[in-house]
Structures are given as C-alpha cells and as structure tokens.
Amino acid sequence: MIPDLRLGIDIGSTTSKAVLLDEEGRFLHAVIRPTGVGGRAVAGELKAEILKEICGKEPASGSLSLRVVATGYGRALVDDADRTVTEITCHACGVRFLHPDASTIVDIGGQDSKVIRLDDTGRVEDFGMNDRCAAGTGSFLDVMANRFDLDVETLADIHTLNPTPFEISSTCVVFAETEVISLLSLGHDLNDVLAGVQRAVARRVVPLVKHVGLKPPVYFSGGVAHNETVRREIESALEVPFPRARRAQYTAAFGAAILAGD
Ligand code: ADP
Fold this sequence. Notes:
Shape: globular
Bound molecules: adenosine-5'-diphosphate
Number of strands: 9
C-alpha cells in the first residue's frame, strides 16, 4: 500500500520549518533551516530532507502519496503545495492540537509577533499582529546578540545574573543599539544591559495581548519562546501562567500538516 503522508511547510522570515505526519495524523519528523534569501529553494530542501529521513533514501516517484500545505510569509514560494493557509490559522490549529485547552496564543518569531484568541471549538476569534517594527520580535534580540558576539541561547541565559535589569526605552533597533552602547560607556554592566534588552522585547508584546484580550490558558510559541528570560518577563507582566508550547517553533508547520489531512 502506498503511504499517505501529510506535510506542512512554514516559510518564515527567519527560519523555515517542515513537519511530516502519517495518515492518522501521528507525528513522524520535523526539520528546520534558515530561510536566508532563497525561500523557494529552502522549501524544496526541507521536503527532500524530511522524506529522505523517513524513507532512508530519496523516495522513488509514485512510491508515496503526499499532501502539502504551505504557510508562513513565504508560502507562495512552495511550488508544489496543494494549498496555502495563513499563519494565523495554522498556529491556531497546531497549538490547539498540541494543547487542546489553549485559548490564547502568543507567537514571537523572527520579524513579527502575533496574539491569537480562540473560541471554545479552537476557531480564531480575534488576533493582532505587529509586523511593522523589530521591537518585540526575535530580530531585535538577534541584532543585539550579534553586536556582542553572542548566540541567542547565551543571550537568553543572561537573566540569571541580574534580578533587576533596567529597560531599554528605544523602540527602533538602530536607536536601541545606540542606547546600549551609551549605557555601557556610562559604566553599566553588559549583563544588566542585555537583560534590559530582553525585558524590552517582552514588554513590547504585552499591549498587543491586552488589545486582543487574554483568555487563559495562554501558550507561548515561535522561536523566541525558547528564551526563558523573555518568557518569564511576559509571564510576570500578564500575571497568569505562560508556558512554552510544545514544539514551539514548529506550531504553524504542525498546523499546516494537520490541515493537509482535511
Ligand atoms: P519565523 O517563523 O518568523 O522565521 P521563528 O519562529 O523561527 O521565526 O523564530 C526565530 C527567532 O527565534 C530568532 O530571531 C531567534 O531570536 C529566536 N530563537 C530561536 N531559537 C532560540 C533559542 N534556542 N533561544 C532563544 N531564542 C531563539
């Protein structure tokens, strides 16, 4: 019998992800790559990589049946997708599948942040998005980490040394970089300043959550959900538990793979 597989591909601004499910919707495998400048090529590479992983070699043509749903800002670049679906719908579907009790989702990716509120059946009730400004997104953290020759994981660990960081007030990443340099020139500790950078990212998302309306339980998805400092800062501002979603960076790809089964 020819296996019937479901593939979700999320071409994000920073990373591209693919999730493969079997015909029963069971998880088989996930892969991730930087999007770079070639979203179209990355989509093909993700598909080849994930199928090779599952089949042990490149599958012969006609040896499996594959339904593909593409999402993410670069979804139109996935040439052989059966259909495309918005990230909002895919995040909702993916997070709700991984956490059936989810009522609100906060997603912080490379270049945007989103808040999605769900109704009791898991449908999108309302959402809000910031994709105009780097503040409150992963790229703000990437620029700062890069400026000080750190990786984002190391930056995320910095909170442990600094219980009371101050906040960086600039919303524009270019001005924030200048602000950071000027604080350092005044003799402030680099760890304090970088903890303040992370607090600033967390605090930028809170008004969006309040605008859309928070209905607990709320889950944190997107690559920045791996940053424990940002997660705790948002949790303390929202005053409700704010756990990281399972497979946090893959939730839209997960949702796309589930929708490929419809
Ligand atoms: P997009 O879907 O918009 O391309 P992602 O959801 O993949 O974005 O998130 C990318 C962002 O996640 C990066 O900008 C980076 O700052 C952050 N990130 C990824 N992994 C980690 C990690 N392990 N620790 C902290 N931050 C991370």
